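Thought: the user wants the 3D structure for the chain below. I'll pass the sequence to the structure tool as-is, report back what it returns, then summarize two notable features.
Action: structure_tool
Action Input:
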Amino acid sequence: MNNGSIDTETNSRAFLEFKIDIRRLFSKFEEHLEITGNKRILFSGKFGIGKTYFLKEFFNKHNEKYECYYLSPVNYQISQNEDIIELLKYDILIEIINKNEKLKEKILEDNDYKKLIMQICVFGKTNYKEIINGAISLISWIPKLGRPLQETVGLVENIRKFTKNARKGMGDAEIGEFLETIKKEQITETDYISEFIKKKIQEIKEVNKTPDGKEKESVLILDDLDRIDPEHIFRILNVFSAHFDLNNKELPNKFGFDKIIIVADYSNLVKIFHHKYGQDTDASGYFNKFFSVEIFQFTPEEVILEAIDDKIISRFQIKDPNLEPTFMKDIGFSRIFLKTILTRALKLTGKEKLNMWQLLKGIRFNLPKFGKNENITPPTFIILTVFNLQNYRLLEIIIDILLSIFDNDKEHFISVLEKIKQNHINENNQEENKNPAYKDVCEKFYPCLLEKIMPQEFENLKPNEVKNISFICQHSKTSYDINITSMASGNLAPVNQTPIIGNNVIKIKSIIKSNNHIPNYNDTREFNKLFYECFYDLLIEYIEQM
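Observation:
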C-alpha cells in the first residue's frame, strides 16, 4: 500500500528510462546553425519545454562536428556585487580541464597549471606569500560554480600542488621572471586568463579533429540565462555581444568560440529589460546584437503532443489497483480527461502554457493521488462502458492529480482552465469531432459538479422529476439555467453510463444562458459552445470551493 511517500530510487529509474524521440527536430536547428556567418544564436523557448535536453541530444548526435562547452550560470552561488564573468572564466577552465582528461594528445601539462595559477594570483602581489594566499583563495571560488565535486577535482588538486611547491622556495626572482615572460606574449584578450582560455580552446580544436581531419567548431552554450539576477544577465550579454573595431569590422567571439548559444525565453528577457530600463526603451534594438541572423524559436509541441497519451500518461505511476482501469487507453475516464486537459494546456501561450517539468510529474514522482484510494468504488465500473459514481471520488482524484501537475497552485490552474475554455468554445466542429470521448466524460461529470456545488437542489429529488437549476459562476459572472431530469435507477439494467445521485439517474436535458436567447440545439456548434462553456465554469466554481 502507498502511504504517500515517494520511492525516489524507483522514480529516478523510471524517469531516466523515459525519453521522447526529438530527432526529427534536429534538421531545423542544424539548418539554422549552418547559416554562413551565424556566430551568435539566441535559442528561445518557454521554461521547462525541453531546451537543455534538446541541445544535449543534438550535440551528442553531432559530436564529431562540434566541441561543446556547457555552462549553467543559474547554478552559480554569487552575490549581486560580484562579477559573474570571473565565475564564467573559471567554469570554462573546468570544462577545458575535463576535456583534457579525455584527449589522447593532452593540451594541459603541469607547467600549464603553474602558469595559469600564476596568471591568476601574481598580479597585484608583492611576494610569494601573498601569491600563495591568492591561490588558496582561488579554491574558495570553485564551489560557487555549483558543479559536481568530481568535475572540479583536477583544478583543486593542481592549485594545492602549486601552493605546496611555492612554499618550498618560490622567490621574488621567479615572480619577476614570470612577469617578464608574460609581457613578451601577444595578448589579444582583455586579460591573461581569458587569453589562456582562448589558446587552450584553439589547441583542443587542433588535436581533436573531425574524422576527415577538419577542426571541430567550438560552441559555448550559456543555459537558462533568463533565470539569473538581471544585473548578471546584462553583464553576460554585453560581454558576449557583437563587437566591432575602429573600421566597423566585427571582431571574433569572446574567448575565440566559433559559436555562442544563449539559451533563454526571449519574451522573459524582454520583460526583464523593460522592467530595468522602462517600457518605452527599444528592446529589439538592444537584443539584436546578441544574435547574428534571427532568434531561433524552439517549438517541440508537435512531438510532445504525439507522446502525451502513449508515452507519458501511459507511464504515470498508478499504484492503486482500483484506479488503474480509469487509465485504460481510449476508455478510461481519468486518461481521457487528463489527456484532453494536458493537451490543451500544452497548446496555450504565456504563463498558462504547460511545461515539461509539470507534464512529466506523473512519471518522475509517485504522486499520492496515484496511491491507494480506499473510498473509490471497485474497478469494475470505472470505465466508459459501465459507469457509476455514487460518491464522486473519481472526479475529486482527477482534479487533485491536475492540481498536483500544475504545482498545487489553485489560482494558476483556474487561469489555465479559463484559457482552455476560451479556446475550446471558439474552435470549429471539425476539431471537436476528433475527441467525442471527452464530451462523453464531461456529460457524466456534469451532474457530479452540480451536486457538489449545489447539494440542496438534489436533496429531495424524486424519480422521473424534471428540475431547472439556476447556476451563477462567480468566476466568470455568467448565469445558466440547467434543466435536468431524474430516472429511477432500478429501471436501468445495467446503469447506462450515467451518474447516480441517491437512487436516481441524472441526465442533462438542456442548458440556457440566463438573459440570453434559447440556443438552437439543431446547430451542433452552438450547442457544443454552450455545453463546454458551462462545464468549465462549473469545474472552475467547484475548484474555487475546494
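Final Answer: Structure generated. The chain has three domains: 23-65+216-299, 79-203, 301-545. The radius of gyration is 31 Å.
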